[in-house]
Amino acid sequence: YLTVSIEPLPPVVVGDAVTLKCNFKTDGKMREIVWYRVTDGGTIKQKIFTFDAMFSTNFSQMENYRKREDLVYQSTVRLPEVRISDNGPYECHVGIYDRATREKVVLASGNVFLNVMAPPTSISVLAADTPAPFSRYQAQNFTLVCVVSGGKPAPLVYFKRDGEPIEATPLPEPPAGASSWAPRSLLHRDLDDTKVPKSLAADGEPGMGNPFPTVDPPRGLAAERDAVTESIPETVVSREFPRWVHMAEPIYYFRHTHAPVSDGTVEARATLTWTLNPQIDNEALFSCEVKHPALSMPMQSEVTLVAPKGPKITMTPTRARVGDTVRILVQGFQNEVFPEPLFTWTRVGSRLLDGSAEHDGKELVLERVPAELNGSMYRCTAQNPLGSTDTHTRLIVFENPNIPRGPEDSNGSLPGHCGFRFILALTLTVILELT
């Protein structure tokens, strides 16, 4: 007579203490109690503890450095601090001697599944496809991505706007491209007529039914920015917001995916996509919240959509001399900007020193500046989908006393003139010898 039973265990959290108790009844003489951990879908049974009734001893088959378990009352195993790796099925095998012959052992077993949960360890919200240029003449889709790592099982992820839950349309499959997101139909786009020529602004008035062009910016605007006669003070900061009007509340699209990680946890990703309206979305607070059975309260991360404002630009060295390498750097803004802006450098009325029309990045490096750059104006445009800001700074180049200047040398390139005079003198000498 031998029966073995194990009571089912509720899910436990990483770090908890767990007791695996093997309940058995028998009227025979005990031989042994063995605990197994079952892996690979039941194909492998790893012996973890043995109680030998013949010698009244118990010992662990685990490595010494992993001996975290204790055998209590000969049939109960206690795990002081469970790990994710402890997740899985366990079996308790009890053996007694056969009454007919002591050479045979009768076995019975019971099993239990240990479900180990782990709360998420990190959560972050970021913008997809940034930094990237935007067009203030065309409504664009915007996507927030919430990444939650370290959880087991997969958590429940949802978004809020200004503290209110967002009702979103679920998307089972990711979009094939930007065109697969159906944009909202726009009645008109109200543009800032201080930036756009009147003839172009009139096309976008309400009720006209003619949307504003969605291609390149109007030539009038490009000409205004690139004119050589542009009058700009030493440092100018201007802000520019795209403004168009939606006739209804935005429609949000939501997608949730999760992928298993090698350590047994799950990485969850949730995306929220909508047609951005900078007029109402600027300074809007979006939060990603996570519910998980291992958490006593929701976990959250939040961001505020903000256009760049008040760039802080530094130039080193502060007194640039001919031949110096000048670095113009954007150190930050007067506000917290999200998403990350895209920086574009241009030279007003001309090309950059390397001959390019523009340069992308926070820093503009001018190698060995010549005297001709004295007084040149540089524009840094910082833009994100919420708006843009332009900052102009003027480069002043001083003479370099370490570079000698000849009377006919206006740009410090003395070696070139010396070479010319040498060739001229040599030519005259050859002519005289020939004559």
Automatic annotation (TrEMBL):
<keyword id="KW-0677">Repeat</keyword>
<comment type="subunit">
    <text>Interacts (Ig-like 1 domain) with NRXN2 (via Laminin G-like 1 domain) in a trans-interaction manner.</text>
</comment>
<dbReference type="GO" id="GO:0007156">
    <property type="term" value="P:homophilic cell adhesion via plasma membrane adhesion molecules"/>
</dbReference>
<dbReference type="InterPro" id="IPR003599">
    <property type="entry name" value="Ig_sub"/>
</dbReference>
<feature type="domain" description="Ig-like">
    <location>
        <begin position="311"/>
        <end position="396"/>
    </location>
</feature>
<keyword id="KW-0732">Signal</keyword>
<dbReference type="InterPro" id="IPR013783">
    <property type="entry name" value="Ig-like_fold"/>
</dbReference>
<keyword id="KW-0336">GPI-anchor</keyword>
<keyword id="KW-1015">Disulfide bond</keyword>
<dbReference type="GO" id="GO:0005912">
    <property type="term" value="C:adherens junction"/>
</dbReference>
<comment type="function">
    <text>Involved in synaptic inhibition in the brain. Selectively regulates inhibitory presynaptic differentiation through interacting with presynaptic NRXN2.</text>
</comment>
<dbReference type="InterPro" id="IPR013106">
    <property type="entry name" value="Ig_V-set"/>
</dbReference>
<dbReference type="InterPro" id="IPR036179">
    <property type="entry name" value="Ig-like_dom_sf"/>
</dbReference>
<keyword id="KW-0393">Immunoglobulin domain</keyword>
<dbReference type="Pfam" id="PF07686">
    <property type="entry name" value="V-set"/>
</dbReference>
<dbReference type="GO" id="GO:0007157">
    <property type="term" value="P:heterophilic cell-cell adhesion via plasma membrane cell adhesion molecules"/>
</dbReference>
<dbReference type="GO" id="GO:0098552">
    <property type="term" value="C:side of membrane"/>
</dbReference>
<keyword id="KW-0325">Glycoprotein</keyword>
<keyword id="KW-0472">Membrane</keyword>
<dbReference type="InterPro" id="IPR051427">
    <property type="entry name" value="Nectin/Nectin-like"/>
</dbReference>
<keyword id="KW-0628">Postsynaptic cell membrane</keyword>
<keyword id="KW-1003">Cell membrane</keyword>
<protein>
    <recommendedName>
        <fullName>Immunoglobulin superfamily member 21</fullName>
    </recommendedName>
</protein>
<dbReference type="GO" id="GO:0045211">
    <property type="term" value="C:postsynaptic membrane"/>
</dbReference>
<feature type="domain" description="Ig-like">
    <location>
        <begin position="15"/>
        <end position="108"/>
    </location>
</feature>
<keyword id="KW-0770">Synapse</keyword>
<keyword id="KW-0449">Lipoprotein</keyword>
<dbReference type="InterPro" id="IPR007110">
    <property type="entry name" value="Ig-like_dom"/>
</dbReference>
